[in-house]
Amino acid sequence: MLRFVVRRLLQMCMVVVVLSMLVFVWLRSLPGGPVSAILGERQTPQRRAALEAALGLDQPLPVQYLKFMERAIQGNFGVSTKVLPGEDALDVFLSRLPATIELSLLALFLAITLGIPLGYLAARRQGSVTDTTAVIFSLVGVAVPVFFTAFLLKYFFAVEWNLLPVSGRQTTGLDATRVTGMFVLDGVLTREWDAAWDAVKHLILPAVALATIPFAVIFRITRASVLDVLDEDYVRTAEAKGLTAQVIRGRHVLRNAMLPVVTTVGLQVGGLLAGAVLTETVFSYRGVGDALATAFREKDYPVLQVLILAAAVIYVLVNLLVDIAYAVIDPRIRTR
Amino acid sequence: MSPKRTVATWTTAVLAAAALAGCADSQRDDDGGGEGGGSEDAGTFIFGAAGAPEMFDPYYATDGETFRITRQMFEGLLGIEPGSAEVVPELATEWTPNDEGTEWTFTLRDDVTFHDGEPFDAEAVCYNFERMFDQNEAGRTAGEYWGYVMGAYADDPENSLYQSCEATDEFEAVVSISRPTSGFPTMLTLESLSMQSPKAMEDGDANGIAAEGEGFSFPEYADNPVGTGPFVFGAYDEANGEITLERNDDYWGEAAKTSELVFRVIPDESTRRQELEAGSINGYDLPNPVDWAGLEDEGNSVEVRDPFNILYLGLNPEANPQLKDLKVRQAIYHALNRDQLVQTQLPEGAAVATQFMPDTVSGYNTSLEPFPYDPDEAKRLLAEAGAEGMTLEFAYPTEVSRPYMPDPEKIYEALRTDLEAVGIKVKVATASWNGGYLDNVSGEPGKYDAYILGWTGDYDAAYNFIGTFFGNLKDNDFGTDVMPWGKQLADDLQAADAIVDDDERAAAFEEINAQIMEEYLPGLPISHSPPALVVGPGVDGVIPSPLTAEEFDTVTVGGE
Known about the structure:
The complex is a heterodimer.
Chain A: H1 2-29, H2 34-39, H3 45-54, H4 61-73, H5 89-124, H6 129-143, H7 146-160, H8 183-189, H9 193-230, H10 233-240, H11 245-282, H12 288-298, H13 301-329, H14 331-335
Helix pairs in contact in A: 1-13, 5-6, 5-9, 5-11, 5-13, 6-9, 7-9, 7-11, 8-9, 9-11, 10-11, 11-12, 11-13, 12-13
Chain B: H1 3-20, E1 44-49, H2 64-70, E2 78-80, E3 87-89, E4 92-97, E5 103-108, H3 122-133, H4 137-142, H5 144-150, E6 162-169, E7 172-177, H6 198-203, E8 210-212, E9 215-217, E10 231-237, E11 242-247, E12 260-265, H7 269-278, E13 283-285, H8 292-297, E14 301-304, E15 309-315, H9 326-335, H10 338-345, E16 351-352, H11 375-384, E17 391-398, H12 408-421, E18 425-432, H13 433-442, E19 450-456, H14 462-470, H15 486-497, H16 502-520, E20 523-528, E21 532-535, E22 539-540, E23 556-557
Parallel strand pairs in B: 1-12, 1-13, 17-18, 17-19
Antiparallel strand pairs in B: 2-3, 4-5, 5-7, 6-7, 8-9, 10-11, 11-12, 13-21, 14-21, 15-19, 15-20, 16-20, 22-23
Helix pairs in contact in B: 9-11, 14-15, 15-16
Pfam family, one (chain B): SBP_bac_5
Keywords (chain B): Signal, Transport
Protein name (chain B): ABC transporter substrate-binding protein
């Protein structure tokens, strides 16, 4: 097991190095760049040349890349040009990460706690009204774009009914103490319960919007997987042995049906990062996704590089965790 | 999991949470927080900003979102009359030039202190000028506006407009410049050239900017700015995207009406509107013109600014030699139905342009009439020039909305239809604003035959419009260096700019405007659009500024 984990971590390092090169070249091959984002209408060939020289963008690409790697090895990924100008790009990522973790965890929690039980129920009652309704609901979740879902959620829950805030992470003037950057946790840690509750309220709509796609996917995989398992011989055998329904469901059906679901959940974590870009933008939620959108619009290379590489690392790590979870759920994999 | 294990797990989790709950202390002020609901607090004006500020030292700032915030904290020697582009006294009460217009004596207010309690006097003024002038290599590139208006820095004094500053009395400073220009002292209204506390700049190493990788790292001062304005810097809550400014109770003028001013970063336009509808912000900038009526119906007020911009169709004879022929350029102009464009694609209050500057700028020529829409004449001129059926690579930018062009694609489509109607074959070209469009337009040579672009004036000076466009022969987007009159036009503009007498200078610019439109036609001025901002019910005292330079100290919220 340890060898397996170490091998995977080494693979991850390779992935990061290759990806860093690809990202570096890809970003710089896109038209435009940070210089036009900074100068706007005021740009002239002279002014552009001066700024490019100051930022080292006039150097040949391999030279730029080597300089980047040289700094990166020392933990210096350059400073942001537009997202938070002057700030270390890695710090920008780290300061935005807690917000995205908080949002993704809640979204994932919603998707799993609704998706798995509903998927199981729908499979058990295949063809019933519950099943059909849940299937339609999940289809809508996949089909409707996040920004539209977000717009509707905001319109009804925030503007019309005034139940929840429209956007942001915290109400203006709340003066909450910051500890971890995850506002709900911070509220709990400091016993500022109003701040924790306020943060929860700000999280609900973006988390629901972000959860729609993972929910739909988890629901459908669970449903299909449970349907498959229900047809298995060992389930029939268990029934014939006279085991209680509870034991059959818990030990034989759910546990076996969970394998593909766990993979799916793992993959959805990567999807959550992609979804966070849209969700965080429309909810003005200051997380990694919002930073990524701003960095791309304003061609903030250092921040883009860090964010893309970090996303890759997270994705690889989550997949590693999924593989470990596999082993825990399925003893056959463990013994291989 | 057995029921027993479940209970054990949950018990552990609850105990852990209870233990965690004691592990950090609240740092709230005793009187602060807990209430929330900013807009219910009548003492706070909350403005929805489209983007985050770069930092808070206006000298290094380049974008409108940063200036909107620093403008509330900083003041210049000269100010702008709220609601107009007119120059008025601010920290200087008077300014007089010598006969040559190269030495300007500023008489300063004697009752001003910086937010840190330091006195504002002639020494402080000269410290500021020298600080702006004497920059390290990174600062010379980042100090965008100084370079733009002054031309150079201490390392290249021959090319610098600014020469020196001398404190001749406690409240009198003399600034010397290398040549007379209409831009000086009007340029001192620029937010970037505001006065900042010498002591705070010294303590915070204000000039310690450095190029690091592909960006600039800013000194500590840029996060703790100290000016003289009606608001004092409070805090930048980056995690929540909020900037808080507090009222300066020791302000030399009338104190601000609200005790707090908050800027909330909300990048998405429809979210800003929903926040306003929900009452959680009190206003935002640049509402989409199609929303204006709806916003008014909901009880908000849309404050329309006087247009201080120009949208033009740029032509590039370097990319398409057929455009060197005046008849071709006139034909293209005759083909454009600008009345219809203004009525259908631009916000209420927009106007057809007769020249490259709005009528509020001194030097505007009132005798010029709009170039008439006449497709037949356009066809005739094209035929005469032998350019029937000419092909024009005509470009527009995507992913952008500017005050002079709220929706570039729609404007472009209207113009393209007009051009095709007279037989011009349009080759559509497009690129995103930061994704190559500006590079293609202002490259040397520019890539497109024709393009749409515009300009919002920095201050009230004719040269800031037409001088920016045509005053520099080598470095302009219109390719005037390949035209026989290009050098003459640049020389004339520079000569007019150097005239010291205001009336004489205005007359010279009027004449040049007529020449540009009647003899040269280097590009085609299209329209002036009024950008707007919107404030919610109960908000009063917002004075819309043509320069989008609103000061919020006069604003009241909730009828206070």
